[in-house]
Design brief:
Elements (H helix, E strand, L loop, with lengths): L1 H5 L4 E7 L3 H7 L5 E6 L3 E2 L4 E3 L3 E14 L10 H7 E14 L16 H4 L4 H6 L4 E6 L15 E6 L2 E7 L7 H14 L9 E6 L4 E2 L5 E5 L5 E7 L4 H4 L11
Parallel strand pairs: 1-10, 3-7, 4-13
Antiparallel strand pairs: 1-2, 5-6, 5-10, 5-11, 6-7, 8-9, 8-12, 12-13
Length: about 250
């Protein structure tokens, strides 16, 4: 992560992982973790994600916070987070290890098995890999926090016509605002802070869903609206931009 920042990649915000108890048990940890969101990994809603350069890509449904003010200090609560938030967005996060695109001779399932099928990754490896964050997608618009009861928010994720995952925001530490408050506390401990303009992915509302080329996902986030994305291969520009300087030419 430090190398990417030093190389000139622009930081767009933060992601929080392991915000639900089942995931923490799966990873063998008693608290969440966090990583950085890079601007070059943000993809447009309704677009196409190239998954050919990802090992075991997974899709997660999250609530994203766009901050309008700094959040720092210990003991930050949900009210402080709400006051510092300008907009809430329906969001997807694509997680998986970035790798060179698979060759045509790669065996079946390359890049297609779910991480659950392969067993849990090591927590140290996930953290070292920036929380396995490969790309993220935000809805084109979103409401202000005062317009949404986050604790009652639900989401249904469909692959094609089939609903493959459902969840609720309450599973994210009881309230996604509390997840962002946790992050603010951790960053303060590390000498940092949440800044105005930061985007924060607050943690997955659903179990992670395996992504395969040709899949089209649509999520109904209720008060946050709809969000869709399609997975493909052979379009290296999308994900591989995450390894180039922000605003530079892709491979």
């Amino acid at each position: 992560m430090a190398e990417r920042v030093a190389a000139g990649e622009r930081v767009a915000g933060w992601k929080i992982g392991a915000t639900s108890a089942p995931v923490r048990v799966w990873l063998g940890t008693d608290e969440p973790f966090y990583g950085v969101l890079f601007a070059g990994t943000r993809l447009p809603p309704g677009g196409v994600i190239d998954v050919s350069c990802l090992a075991r890509p997974l899709l997660e449904c999250e609530v994203a916070f766009e901050l309008r003010a700094e959040v720092r200090g210990s003991g930050v609560g949900a009210r402080e987070v709400q006051a510092a938030t300008s907009r809430l967005y329906a969001a997807f996060e694509l997680v998986g290890e970035v790798r060179p695109p698979a060759s045509p001779s790669a065996g079946p399932g390359a890049g297609g098995e779910s991480r659950a099928d392969a067993g849990p990754p090591s927590l140290a490896g996930v953290i070292a890999g920036n929380g396995s964050s490969a790309a993220f997608v935000l809805a084109a618009s979103g409401p202000s926090p005062s317009e949404v009861d986050l604790r009652s928010l639900q989401v249904a994720l469909s692959r094609g016509e089939e609903v493959v995952a459902c969840g609720q925001a309450e599973s994210v530490m009881g309230d996604p605002c509390l997840a962002v408050a946790w992050l603010a506390d951790k960053l303060t401990e590390a000498g940092g802070m949440l800044r105005a303009g930061d985007i924060v992915l607050s943690g997955s509302m659903t179990p992670p869903v395996a992504v395969r080329p040709g899949d089209t996902f649509t999520a109904d986030f209720g008060a946050l609206g709809m969000l869709s994305v399609t997975a493909a291969t052979g379009l290296r520009r999308a994900i591989m931009r995450s390894s180039t300087l922000d605003g530079g030419e892709s491979a």
